[in-house]
Amino acid sequence: xxxxxxxxxxxxxxxxxxxxxxxxxxxxxxxxxxxxxxxxxxxxxxxxxxxxxxxxxxxxxxxxxxxxxxxxxxxxxxxxxxxxxxxxxxxxxxxxxxxxxxxxxxxxxxxxxxxxxxxxxxxxxxxxxxxxxxxxxxxxxxxxxxxxxxxxxxxxxxxxxxxxxxxxxxxxxxxxxxxxxxxxxxxxxxxxxxxxxxxxxxxxxxxxxxxxxxxxxxxxxxxxxxxxxxxxxxxxxxxxxxxxxxxxxxxxxxxx
Amino acid sequence: xxxxxxxxxxxxxxxxxxxxxxxxxxxxxxxxxxxxxxxxxxxxxxxxxxxxxxxxxxxxxxxxxxxxxxxxxxxxxxxxxxxxxxxxxxxxxxxxxxxxxxxxxxxxxxxxxxxxxxxxxxxxxxxxxxxxxxxxxxxxxxxxxxxxxxxxxxxxxxxxxxxxxxxxxxxxxxxxxxxxxxxxxxxxxxxxxxxxxxxxxxxxxxxxxxxxxxxxxxxxxxxxxxxxxxxxxxxxxxxxxxxxxxxxxxxxxxxx
Amino acid sequence: xxxxxxxxxxxxxxxxxxxxxxxxxxxxxxxxxxxxxxxxxxxxxxxxxxxxxxxxxxxxxxxxxxxxxxxxxxxxxxxxxxxxxxxxxxxxxxxxxxxxxxxxxxxxxxxxxxxxxxxxxxxxxxxxxxxxxxxxxxxxxxxxxxxxxxxxxxxxxxxxxxxxxxxxxxxxxxxxxxxxxxxxxxxxxxxxxxxxxxxxxxxxxxxxxxxxxxxxxxxxxxxxxxxxxxxxxxxxxxxxxxxxxxxxxxxxxxxxxxxxxxxxxxxxxxxxxxxxxxxxxxxxxxxxxxxxxxxxxxxxx
Amino acid sequence: xxxxxxxxxxxxxxxxxxxxxxxxxxxxxxxxxxxxxxxxxxxxxxxxxxxxxxxxxxxxxxxxxxxxxxxxxxxxxxxxxxxxxxxxxxxxxxxxxxxxxxxxxxxxxxxxxxxxxxxxxxxxxxxxxxxxxxxxxxxxxxxxxxxxxxxxxxxxxxxxxxxxxxxxxxxxxxxxxxxxxxxxxxxxxxxxxxxxxxxxxxxxxxxxxxxxxxxxxxxxxxxxxxxxxxxxxxxxxxxxxxxxxxxxxxxxxxxxxxxxxxxxxxxxxxxxxxxxxxxxxxxxxxxxxxxxxxxxxxxxx
Lengths: 256, 256, 301, 301
Ligand SMILES: Cc1cc2nc3c(=O)[nH]c(=O)nc-3n(C[C@H](O)[C@H](O)[C@H](O)COP(=O)(O)OP(=O)(O)OC[C@H]3O[C@@H](n4cnc5c(N)ncnc54)[C@H](O)[C@@H]3O)c2cc1C
Ligand SMILES: Cc1cc2nc3c(=O)[nH]c(=O)nc-3n(C[C@H](O)[C@H](O)[C@H](O)COP(=O)(O)OP(=O)(O)OC[C@H]3O[C@@H](n4cnc5c(N)ncnc54)[C@H](O)[C@@H]3O)c2cc1C
Ligand SMILES: Cc1cc2nc3c(=O)[nH]c(=O)nc-3n(C[C@H](O)[C@H](O)[C@H](O)COP(=O)(O)O)c2cc1C
Ligand SMILES: Cc1cc2nc3c(=O)[nH]c(=O)nc-3n(C[C@H](O)[C@H](O)[C@H](O)COP(=O)(O)O)c2cc1C
Ligand code: FES
Ligand code: FES
Fold this sequence. Notes:
The complex is a heterotetramer, with 2 copies of chain A (about 260 residues) and 2 copies of chain C (about 300 residues). Chain A has about 260 residues and is α/β, with parallel strands linked by helices.
């Protein structure tokens, strides 16, 4: 198993003022919801969900700091070293009627599952300029709904509120979600209240990505290997979910 | 690739007063003509042809010295560590009408090919007591002819003389052979005289078996990896064939 | 007494396999999971005096036959680690691994681990990628001896020394540990290594240097154990590339009284412990070994 | 000058990859084959004063990621080796590898290799499994220096020292070689290792100990080259686990001026040299390197 490869960037697309998609030909098996470790030489290495999982793969990166901005600096024709794909991914054969709920760049992790299932999609963000990948979702989903906190586009409110509405309107079997942990926390709650199953993709600090170092623990689960996608029942048992994470030293950091 | 395995001996058969067959369940791919390195713990490790190549494999060992006699001491239920299978094996798809010519325990190397092709077989030895595996050959070959130097059984003369007769009687496309090198040398000559293609399995001192150490060279070919089976055209170019080998130190030893 | 039970020095474990230091053992919950998965004990992540973030990513990469890592000894510091220990020791035996830059620091850390309820302390004298720590001090027999002896005289629990294979004679390091009062030595830590990206023209790890672990180093680890068993009278704990029962058996036959599993927790998951336990029991009953102790060092005879 | 040509010290090779010592290089014909397969030079099997059968079988076994061998330095002795050299040097450059138990023996062997037409001599100060030879004497910088210096003063051809990785500091050994007058160092020889059969309760190799080679040791070899390049001013020849152009490129970028291939001759066959040459040329043209020299040590910057 060769799990790291240096690949050439064959496409770069601007998704919003601070988000870019990079594409590469990289013919390794991957399933929706998996992620890779992306090296920004001299800077850092960070986990990024695969926003495409076929023979051509992609990552969609929001510029928030050193590493992500270094990745934004990469150009078509240049090389990038990837490790992975890692993690379990979504178990989407289970659900028949699926709704994908994304917060911000969390949409990246959901795109391959949306493509595979053609499910309905909600993408939420603070304001219109931060909505990404809705154009891609629209190619595969019958319904793509947008929510913005400031009401600058689509539903005025957050993605969870919108998801609640849709859950009561339509008969979903499964919600898949990715976004900020507070959002996912309330999404999980909403799903339970509506009796709908869910699978949510979480984030933690990652170093090895391969289930070895133990830095990404959420309770006794490794987000990199046992996750990043956790089922509703698993989430029920995770006392850290929505409440605590660990910093680089392994110290507890309260989320709220 | 796991190329060494400790397997259990599931069968042991006496073939003659100094030759035994050991069988083991060992489900790795092997082709007729390949060999294994067989460890006699505390004693030595020696190359042995596979006399069966299916899921149940076998070696047929003539007791000639320390290692072979130690292998004879192995019992059903005991363990033996094998490395391999090594080498190229016979290319028997090529030939349509095949004759197998064995000298003594060289019959071992030919058995899987005889089984696969059902070809005619000659087994030669010094005397009747040294003929082995003719019973096995008889299960698969239409014709099994025996030759003995002393005339105690079958044709009175050596296997090459008998092979010459059969070559002129019948229309063989390919001779496959294994046995003492002098015999093979004359067999090769006879084949050329009769315009029949041949593939002969040679022996040299072996250490790694894997084509690394270079102790088994015949001219610039590794008997363990480029061989042990060589085609007629290859044999034409091997000046060491029938004339020289190397000892443990790599010194030249004249064969005649 | 179960067939897999072991006792050496003053320690008794129900199962002979432990989680190696640095592998899913930085938090209380993860340590509990490892013990529940079949580990006989868990060795904690190596803990120092102060919180330490470790090296910047990349800290890890796969290579043929294993991993190369330079985590850089990230840890929350010994004081905060009290909480993790409190959770872990309720599930089973915990060996406290510590690293320091001198004998005094090691002694202080070990004493705290003892207070937290550690069954033994393991001194990391062998990490190959943290400046001023690990192998940088553990490659010199004099240091090994003085550190082990300082710790031994300040705690009551057994003191283990984890040795580096990056030396011309691991036996010499082992003898220094024994002379200093170690109750066991642990071998091996990772091999000094570096990984370079051809296209990106740089060492991959931020620290440049790292340590090689996994199946690739198994024959090196087995040799270290074999050598140490011949040179010492204290028990040897084997670690390096163990990923199934056969690997574990080989280490034990070479002279290991117990073993640890690191990288295979990544490749096979925590269930690797249960699998090894079952396989070892079958092997033992097939070959007529009544206890692990009967197997120790048999291949040396 | 071809893109793959290299020149270092007084040596000029058309291609940067050589056959490592001990790999299909004990007979004239086999050495010719390796050069025809694309090797820039062939390093001979290590040759001693007298014929030597080496250890009894088993001398070799596969392990995960490589091989463990203890051939025990079999060779026909320097006098008979004259014939093999006579055949080989007609095909291309041959580096004569020699082993002895003291400086005088090394000097005598090297002088004969020079007479036979060797382009350089490589001193085996690093074989890990022959009593009284190799690493047993090559682990001590003082020995390395005195042997290299004795040989350097008795032959005109370049003298290379092949170093052992079984040490806490390969740079120290490299400095000793440089001080002794070596024109290059070669790193690494195999890692000390042992393989045990669980069922048969014994070390597999007749010599018990052996040396680990192949992909498993690549990150260790690259680290050795990286360290040596930083510590020395003479060229470093990289060896250990190279089996494709990317491995070769990584060694060169880490600081190797040339490289050697051993185990991969078994897994990929002699054609490995042609494959590496083609791959390297493509890599170089893709990345704008005009010569191997331009690549040397780039990953160190
Ligand atoms: C499984 C997973 C999938 C992800 N997928 C995407 C994606 O598809 N698109 C995207 O834009 N972002 C994704 N992220 C988040 C992304 O990894 C971080 O936003 C990015 O690492 C920020 O790094 P920075 O140096 O630019 O910012 P910094 O300023 O260094 O960090 C900003 C924040 O990012 C987080 N972060 C930094 N390093 C890491 C790390 N090694 N592991 C986890 N979190 C880290 C921390 O919370 C930090 O506070 C994913 C994270 C995880 C765990
Ligand atoms: C490819 C190959 C396939 C073989 N297949 C069979 C077989 O199916 N059945 C069988 O009985 N024999 C076979 N042999 C021969 C067998 O390996 C030797 O007869 C056996 O090794 C003798 O060892 P010993 O210790 O019993 O005798 P010794 O007294 O040690 O040796 C007798 C002779 O065997 C040869 N020999 C010893 N060790 C080796 C070695 N490592 N490599 C090659 N030759 C060696 C030497 O010529 C030696 O003079 C094969 C050999 C080769 C090379
Ligand atoms: C990611 C990682 C982190 C490690 N951290 C430590 C550590 O903190 N302290 C220590 O003594 N060894 C540490 N090690 C070394 C392991 O404990 C073990 O000695 C080594 O990995 C060999 O065992 P393995 O091949 O089973 O992994 C670490 C190894 C890895 C792979
Ligand atoms: C079978 C075998 C025999 C070897 N014999 C020698 C030898 O005689 N002299 C020597 O200096 N190195 C010898 N070596 C070591 C190699 O030259 C090389 O340093 C080592 O194998 C690492 O390279 P690799 O990983 O490409 O094989 C031998 C290695 C093998 C596998
Ligand atoms: S990132 Fe190392 S275990 Fe998850
Ligand atoms: S036996 Fe080693 S190359 Fe053939």
